[in-house]
Amino acid sequence: MTSQDHHPDVQSILLTEQQIADRVAELGREIAEAYQDEPPLLVGVLKGAVMIVADLARRIDLPIDMDWMAVSSYGSGTKSSGVVRIIKDLNADITGRRVLIVEDIIDSGLTLSWLIANLRSRGPKSVEICTLLRKPDAVKVDIDVRFCGFDIPNEFVVGYGLDHAEQYRNLPYIGVLKPSAYTD
Ligand code: XMP
Ligand code: MG
C-alpha cells in the first residue's frame, strides 16, 4: 500500500500530501511576511494541529517559538458544544506577545471562539488565527481567520492530524470518512 492509497474507511481523498505541502509552504511565506517585525508565538491546539504546526513552523523563516494547548469540547461524536475545558495550558506567559493560534479545522467555530477569548484575557499584544481547513458553518460565527489553508465541503474529514475516535491521525492525506465508519 502506498501512502496515497485509500484507507479502507476513507471514501475519497480530498487533499493529497502534495497539495497540503504546497499550501502549507505558501502559508509559511505569508506568515513570515506578516510577522517580520515581531515573530509570533505559535500556539498549536492539540492534538489535531500537531502535523500542521510541525510542517508550518519549518516554512516560517523567522525565529518563532511554539507552545501547545489541549482543550476538550464537550459534545458527542462529531459535533462540538462550545463548552470547553483546558486539558493542558500554555507553558508560556503571553503578556505583550503576538500570538498565532494554529488550528487543524474550524467547523462551528465554538471551540476557537472560546480559545480566542481565553487567550485575549491574558493581555497579549495580538491574537490571530491560522487554520488548515475551514468548513462552511464557520462563516456563521464572527471569527477573523487571517490565514486559511483550504475551505472544504461540509463532510467529516480525517488524516494529517484529524481523527475520529483517535484513529486516522497519521494518514498523510486528508480524506472524507465513509459514513459507515462513524455512528452518529
Ligand atoms: P468546532 O465546531 O468547535 O470544532 O469549530 C472544532 C473541532 O471539532 C473537530 N472537528 C473535526 N475533526 N474531522 C475531524 O477529524 C472533521 O471533519 C471535523 N470537524 C470538526 C476538531 O477536533 C476540531 O478541532
Ligand atoms: Mg482542533
From TrEMBL:
Pathway: Purine metabolism; IMP biosynthesis via salvage pathway; IMP from hypoxanthine: step 1/1; Purine metabolism; GMP biosynthesis via salvage pathway; GMP from guanine: step 1/1. Its main location: cytoplasm. Residues 12-163 form the Phosphoribosyltransferase domain. This is Hypoxanthine phosphoribosyltransferase. Belongs to the purine/pyrimidine phosphoribosyltransferase family. One of its GO terms (biological process) is GMP salvage. NCBIfam families: HGPRTase (TIGR01203). Its cofactor is Mg(2+). It comes from Helcobacillus massiliensis. Its EC number is 2.4.2.8. Pfam families: Pribosyltran (PF00156). It is found in: Cytoplasm.
